[in-house]
Every structure is written in structure tokens, then in C-alpha cells.
Amino acid sequence: MIFSTKWINFVHVGATILLGIATPHVAYSSSTHPAAVAFHVVSSPSYSVECVMSDTCAIPRMAVQRWAIAAAAAPATPGQTATATSVTVNGSQLGAGRGQDLSDMGRPIAYHVASPTQKPVHHIAARITYTATLIKRRLVAGAPLVSVSPLADRDIKLFTSPTATLDFDRAAFKGWLASKGLARKTGENDILFARRVFDLIRVNYRYVLVEDQDRRATQIAATNWSDCGGLCGLFVASLRANGIPARMLIGWTAKPGSPRGHPHVRSEFFAMGVGWIPVEMSAAVYAKSKPTSLSFGYDAGDFITLHIDPDMVVDMKGPSGTINCPGLQTPAHSFEGDGTLDDASESITWVVRKLR
Fold it and tell me: Could you give the CA distance from residue 145 to residue 140 in angstroms, rounded to a whole number?
């Protein structure tokens, strides 16, 4: 699924078109979250990759004189290291820069902002190149060999708070949690509770890919189906509602030699004394007959995260100003010029190359 907004905004002389879609905080401490000391995460490098997203916009009825493109800059996470992001447009890096989204998370963004051109254009070809070393992770039994540092207070707050999409603070979602018995039991550690949420969603939900669906947690809770973004959001929102830090990993598959990569969303949660634990919620729902050891506590190291969590606030560095968008799985655009948006189109390709 695409966790982003197509044609987030075009600007043309005399008009602006914007498309887009952000508290209570549960205390997190060792007394309310007993350590899951019987488990630890084993990590090892999977492989290093170069992933190239080619994003071509055709605007045949607008003479574009200035544009801005915002793309997610891949972060370092427990699932990927040595990350780098670069952006070229129409073959040039001129105008490239860095910034952050304006939400509390401050996620990194790579920009390309073009100065007004003397010769208007009708095609904008962006090439976003991501490199990273992907990490394979597995949750295994046994006490950790080394101590795991607790999360910083800022991260605890970020990853236990509601957002526009992870709206677990709404009465409807609280009612759903109560109806499913999804409240922490006395002595239930982070992993045991997360597994209980995982099993409930795996058994009772179906995988259905609908690109333009409403992925708010309250909406997904009221149905029995969604895609990777909606199912991961339901899992993450359920954990956050119970004070467990959890987050969505929004990105693309990164399997070298695969005929076609695709946008995807995974998740992870932080267990006291163990660290970040990967969860592949949609795979568990889609392939219910496969062992859950391949989806709970397992990361094959074949996925690159472009940004963490949805609900971004992006400064488009132009006349369109600041916009709210679900995410940047594909770039956001701001175009300025004369003409109309009639017959505008966009094509995206994703190519993965193994480096070592």
C-alpha cells in the first residue's frame, strides 16, 4: 500500500490545490511494565542495498516555472544502519537540501527546491537514492547477554501518544479495546501483552488492499479487514493505549533480484529489558497458516524504512507553504506555473541493487 498522498499539492498562478489529511499520555515505568527477561533479540547484518525510486511527473497543460519536491530521508533504526539519502531532479542535484518535518517527531526530509526557470518545463523526473545496511533480527528465548538501555523520556512520550491516524484516545477505540479484553493484566509483561494483541488481530482480521481506505485506528477497529498500513496501525495503537512504546515503520521492500519492489508497512514495539521487537502484522493476517515465528519477533532484513509513523507536517518551501500529509512513501510535490492540472500523471519505479 502507499502511505502517502498522490499529487500532494500543485500550485499554479492564481490558485493553490492542497490534498492532505495531528493528549493523553500513559505512564511507562518498570513497576507497570515488568521486564521480559526471558527473551532477547539477536541481530546480524543481512546485506547492504542501494534502492532507487524514480518518480516522473508529467504536467502537459502547465508550464512549470518553479517546483519543490520533499522525500523521506531514511533514518537509522534497529533494522537498518549506515543510511544515506540523495535526491536529483532532471539529472541535477542543484537545489538539494535537508530539513525535518514540523511535527513533534521532527523526521528527516530530503528536499529539492528549484529556482524559477527561464524555460518552463512539463516533465519533472526525480531520482531518490537510498543506501543502507539492513539488519536481520530475531526474538529468542533466554536472558539478554548485555543490558538494554531504557528509552529516553522523549521517545517514550512520542511512541505512547496518539496521532491523527493512531487515534486510540477516542471513545470508540477505547470501547473496542474493552470489548476485546485488551487491557494489561497484573504481571503481564510487554511481550506477553503484545503477543495477545497480535494473535487477536491475526485470527479475526483479513488482509484487503484498498489504496484509498481510511486507516485511522478507530476505523480499522470497527471493521475486520485492512492492508499493511491499517493492520500495523491497529496493532501499534492497541499497544500505545496500554502504555507500551510502539511505532510504524513505513517504507518499501528491499529484496535484490525481486521483479518488483512494493511499498509496505511493518511495526515494532519496545519491551522493557529487551529492546525494539519487530512485528510483521499484515503477513501474519495474510498467511495465517504460516508459523507466527516468521512474523512476531522476526525481521528478515529485507525491508527499508523511509520514515517512522504517519501524520507528517511538511514545509514545501514554496507558495504552498506547510501541508499535512499521511506520509512520504512517495515524494510530495509543489509546482508553480501557468496552466491547469488536466491530464497530469505520475509514474514510480523502485529498483533494488545489492551492494554487498
Answer: 12
